[in-house]
Amino acid sequence: MFTGNGIKIFTGTSHPELAEIIARRLGIPLGRAEVLKSGIGESHVRIIESVREDDVYIINTGCGEVNTSLIEICIMVHACKIASAKRITAVVPLFPYARQDKKDKSRAPITAKLVANMLQKSGCDHVITMDLHASQIQGFFDVPLYAEPSAIQYIHNNFSLENVVIVSPDAGGAKRATSIADRLGVDFALFHKERKKANEVSRMILVGHVKDKVAILVDDMADTCGTLCLAAKHLSEAGASRIFGLVTHGILSGNALNAVTESVLEKLVVTNTLPQAENMANCPKIEVIDIGNVLAEVIRRSHNGESVSKLFNEVPF
Q: Which of 1-15, 148-162, 191-205 shows the lowest per-residue confidence on average (mean pLDDT)?
C-alpha cells in the first residue's frame, strides 16, 4: 500500500501538466517550489517546504527552452541536496541532447554524457528517462524506461492484430519494433535508409511485406517528421491498406505538423512526454497516449523498493 509518506515530487517549468498527472495518480500534492527567471535569463529556484530525509523526485523534460529546463533541474537537485534530502531522482521523460550520443566527427563532444555528468555532479542519485535515442546511452543512467507497454496496449485496443505489421523507419529502431511485434505476435518490416546529411533522407528501401496490411511505423521520436512521412509514402506505394505512426517523443519541430497533415498517415500517435495540446489543436491527425500513470507507477515502485523491470516485462493487456 502506498501512503506517500517520505516522498516529495517537484516540477520545473517545462511540463507541469505531466507532473500534475503523476502526483494525482500517486495521491499526493506537488511539492511547493518557486522557479523563476531573472531579467538577464538566470534561473532562480527556492524549495519552499522541507525535504530533510525525504525521497525526492524532480520532474522536468527536454522541451521548449531546453537549456533552461536542464539548468532548472540541476539547480533544483542541488537545492534539495544541500537541504538534506535522503535520495534525489531526476525524472526526465525526454532526455536533453540524447541525440548527441557519440563522437562522430573530429573534436565533436559527447554531449549526452556531459548532461549526465551535470546531473550527477549536482547531486542526483538516479535518473528516470524514457526511450533513449540510442541504446549505448543507457550506460549513463540508472533507470532507463520504455514506452513499449503503452504502445502495445494502444495497438491491442485499437487494431485487429491479424492485419497488423509493425514497421521500423530505420535499421536503428529494429530492436524496438521487433520487440513490439514479438509481444503482439504480428509481422515486422523495416526500412533501410541513406542520408545525405542530418535530418535529410536521400533513399529508403523497404524490407518486408506490407501489402493489404495495417502498417504501424514505430520510433522513439518524431522531430521534423521527414523520415516518417517518406516511409509512410513508401508503405502506401507498397500496398499498405492503412498507415499509422506511433512514436514516444513528439517533438514536431519546424514544418512537421504540415508534413503530417499532408502525408498519407492516417494518424500520428505520440505520448505526453512533451506538452502536446498546441500540436493537437493545429493538426487533427495527432493523438496522445498518457504515460503519466506509467511514470507514477515507476516512482511508487522505486520508492517502495519494488522491481521496476518487472513492470515493463509484463504484458499489459
A: 191-205
